Amino acid sequence: MSLHLSDVRLTYPDGDSTVTALDGVSVEVDAGDMLAVIGPSGSGKSSLLAVAATLQRPDSGAVRVAGQDTAGLSGKQLSRLRLEEIGIVFQQPNLISSLTTAEQLLVTQHMRGRSPRQHRERVRELLATVGLDGKQHRKPHQLSGGERQRVNIARALTGKPSVLLVDEPTAALDHDRGTRIVELLAEVTREFRLATIMVTHDTEYLGQVDRIAAMRDGALSHDTAAAPV
Ligand SMILES: Nc1ncnc2c1ncn2[C@@H]1O[C@H](COP(=O)(O)OP(=O)(O)OP(=O)(O)O)[C@@H](O)[C@H]1O
């Protein structure tokens, strides 16, 4: 399973004119691969994630998620595809303050219409995978910033997605915590055979990813295997 964008173009209205956010972007990310996308502010990184997440329909070009062409799908079918196949990690964890760590994950299963009871074991395993063993009963204020980001990642993985989209995961973290979060993302990408795209400003963490692409003015100008560190 993979994520495939082909010649994607996206414009936004801008007064009497338009702004081109994505200008013929093509990229393929295979299962088990992690691609980092870097680039200056306004270069189109968030737009790329929004299109890959099927939250934004492109003006033209194709978006295939887990082998499925998204062009002909209705809004309802896209929502279902997102729930089943796509995990999204936003910059801010946006955890619900009254819920425990385990409940943050169970509530997403409830939204999928699945009984939380059947998923307690998976939630326990996922929390262990992200290094939160023994912290399932803690509420967000009882966790560190890095731990909250780990809950965010575990929550994105609860529905067993094949695609993981990550927006600036290290923005609020110091160097050590940031390094461990990117390590964790690389680990879960391999372990769960995810097709992962991580948008980041922080070039210091790029040694841990498989491929790096640079966005400039809506174009993906470079896509290469990451240099070994
Ligand atoms: N909703 C919108 N309406 C109009 N223009 C937009 C909208 N969203 C983004 N843009 C424009 O599209 C271009 C790409 O923006 P985008 O947010 O994708 O870049 P970015 O690389 O993610 O920037 P940043 O790192 O600052 O988040 C920019 O010129 C931006 O001003």
TrEMBL record:
Domain (ABC transporter): residue spans on this chain: 3-229
Gene Ontology cellular-component terms listed: plasma membrane
Molecular function terms, GO-annotated: ATP binding; ATP hydrolysis activity; transmembrane transporter activity
Entry keyword set: ATP-binding, Nucleotide-binding, Transport
SUPFAM superfamilies for the chain: P-loop containing nucleoside triphosphate hydrolases
InterPro entries: AAA+_ATPase, ABC_transporter-like_ATP-bd, ABC_transporter-like_CS, ABC_transpr_LolD-like, MacB-like_ATP-bd, P-loop_NTPase
Keyword Transmembrane helix set for record: no
Keyword Cytoplasm: no
PANTHER family attached to this UniProt entry: ABC TRANSPORTER RELATED (PTHR24220:SF685), IMPORT ATP-BINDING PROTEIN (PTHR24220)
This protein's name: ATP-binding cassette domain-containing protein
